[in-house]
C-alpha cells in the first residue's frame, strides 16, 4: 500500500492532549490524521499533564514562536505531605511528613507570596540543557548539577478547593514557569512538602480550553472526511487575534509582500500588527518601526489567504 499524499493544510488545532502521551506523539497523531505536509506544536506538555496543546499545521508553523512566548494557564492538584524526586506523581518518594490543619485563609496568604515576579530554580527532571544534554538525562543517572534561578511571573494563583491533603489551584503564568517547582516550593513554605499529582493546561494565550478537541473526536472527523476535519481548524490569524489589524491595498500590499517597510495611514505608533490585503486576506505579521513605517516580519505563502 502506498502512503497517503500529504496535504498543504493550514491552521491551528487546539488539541486536548491525553495523559501519558508525549507532546511529540500527540503532534504526530494529528499530523497523520490531517495528512499534513508540515506540523509543529507550541511548547511541550509533560506526559503526566493533559490539556491544551496548540498544533500548528502548514503556514501556522511560521507563527508558532509567538505562542511559545505566550502566558499559560493551568489547573493543578498539589498533594501535600509527600515530596518526590521529580516533583510530580511519577517520581520516587523522597519524604513523607505530617500535614497540619489546613486553614483556607492561611493557604491563600501563602499563595499570595508566590504571586508576581518570582525566582525559580528549574527542576533536574526538565528538558533544559546542561553542556548540550537535557537535565533529565543527568538526573536519571543520579547526577545533580547547579541550576541558575530564573525569573518568572505568576499573574494569578488561586485556590479552588481544599480536600483532605490536596490543594486544587488555578494558575496564570509567564512562559518558562515550572508548576512542579511551584508546588514543591509551596509545600516547603507550608512546612510539609508537596508534589503535583495532577496537571491540566487550560490556556495558551490567546486560546483557552473552550475550543479544544480530543484525538478521538479528530479520529471521528477523519472518518467523515477532510471537510469535517478541516472544520476543527482555527484560522491562522487566530494566533495573533489580540494584535491590531492593518489592511493594505495596491502598492502598499505589493511592497510589504516584497519585504519592504511602508507607511500606512492611521497605523499604531508601536508594536506588532496583523497584516491583511483588503478586508479578509491575512498574509503575515509586521512591526511598527521608530519612523512609523510598518515592516513585514513573517509573511505567509500567497496562496494561503
Observed structural traits:
305 residues; Pseudouridine synthase; 3 domains; 9-stranded mixed β-sheet; 4-stranded mixed β-sheet; Archaeosine Trna-guanine Transglycosylase, Chain: A, domain 4; alpha+beta; single chain; 8 helices
Describe the protein's topology.
Elements: E1 11-17, H1 23-34, E2 39-41, E3 50-57, H2 64-68, E4 72-80, E5 82-84, E6 93-96, H3 104-113, E7 116-120, E8 129-130, E9 133-134, H4 135-140, E10 150-163, E11 166-173, H5 179-190, E12 194-204, E13 207-208, H6 215-224, H7 226-230, E14 245-248, H8 250-257, E15 272-277, E16 281-288, E17 294-299
Parallel strand pairs: 3-12, 14-15
Antiparallel strand pairs: 1-3, 2-3, 4-11, 4-12, 5-6, 7-10, 8-9, 10-11, 12-13, 15-16, 16-17
Helix pairs in contact: 1-6
Q: Which radius of gyration do the C-alpha atoms yield? A: 22 Å
How many distinct beta strands?
Answer: 17
> Strand content of the residues, in percent?
25-35%
- End-to-end distance, in Å? 34 Å
CATH names the topology of the largest domain as Pseudouridine synthase
Based on secondary structure, the structural category is alpha+beta
Determine and state the CATH class of the largest domain: Alpha Beta
Percent of residues in helices? 10-25%
Q: Residue-averaged pLDDT, rounded?
A: 91
CATH superfamily of the largest domain: Pseudouridine synthase
The 3D shape can be described as: globular
So how many helices? 8
Question: Which residues form runs of ≥5 with pLDDT under 50?
Answer: none
Major β-sheet profile: 9 strands, mixed
Number of domains: 3
CATH architecture title of the largest domain:
2-Layer Sandwich
Q: What is the succession of H and E elements?
A: EHEEHEEEHEEEHEEHEEHHEHEEE
Amino acid at each position: 500500500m502506498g502512503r497517503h499524499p500529504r496535504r498543504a493544510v493550514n491552521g491551528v488545532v487546539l488539541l486536548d492532549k491525553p495523559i501519558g502521551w508525549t507532546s511529540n506523539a500527540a503532534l504526530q497523531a494529528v499530523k497523520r490524521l490531517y495528512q499534513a505536509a508540515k506540523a509543529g506544536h507550541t511548547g511541550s506538555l509533560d506526559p503526566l499533564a493533559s490539556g491544551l496543546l496548540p498544533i500548528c499545521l502548514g503556514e501556522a508553523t511560521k507563527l508558532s514562536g509567538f505562542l511559545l512566548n505566550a502566558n499559560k494557564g493551568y489547573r493543578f492538584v498539589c498533594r501535600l505531605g509527600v515530596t518526590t524526586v521529580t516533583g510530580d506523581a511519577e517520581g520516587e518518594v523522597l519524604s513523607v511528613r505530617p500535614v497540619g490543619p489546613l486553614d483556607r485563609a492561611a493557604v491563600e496568604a501563602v499563595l499570595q507570596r508566590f504571586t508576581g515576579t518570582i525566582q525559580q530554580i528549574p527542576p533536574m527532571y526538565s528538558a533544559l540543557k546542561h553542556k548540550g544534554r537535557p537535565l533529565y538525562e543527568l538526573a536519571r543517572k543520579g547526577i545533580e548539577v547547579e541550576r541558575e534561578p530564573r525569573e518568572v511571573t505568576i499573574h494569578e494563583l488561586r485556590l479552588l478547593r481544599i480536600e483532605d491533603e490536596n490543594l486544587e489551584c488555578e494558575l496564570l503564568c509567564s512562559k518558562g514557569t515550572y508548576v512542579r517547582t511551584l508546588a514543591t516550593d509551596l509545600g516547603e513554605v507550608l512546612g510539609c512538602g508537596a508534589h503535583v499529582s495532577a496537571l491540566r493546561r487550560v490556556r495558551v494565550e490567546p486560546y483557552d480550553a473552550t475550543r479544544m478537541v480530543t484525538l478521538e473526536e479528530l479520529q471521528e472527523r477523519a472518518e467523515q472526511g477532510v471537510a469535517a476535519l478541516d472544520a476543527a481548524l482555527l484560522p491562522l490569524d487566530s494566533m495573533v487575534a489580540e494584535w491590531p489589524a492593518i489592511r493594505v491595498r495596491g502598492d502598499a500590499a505589493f511592497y510589504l509582500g516584497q519585504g519592504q517597510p511602508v507607511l500606512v495611514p492611521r497605523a499604531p505608533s508601536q508594536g506588532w500588527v496583523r497584516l491583511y490585503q483588503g478586508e479578509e486576506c491575512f498574509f503575515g505579521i509586521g512591526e511598527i518601526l521608530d519612523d512609523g513605517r510598518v515592516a513585514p516580519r513573517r509573511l505567509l505563502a500567497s496562496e494561503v489567504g
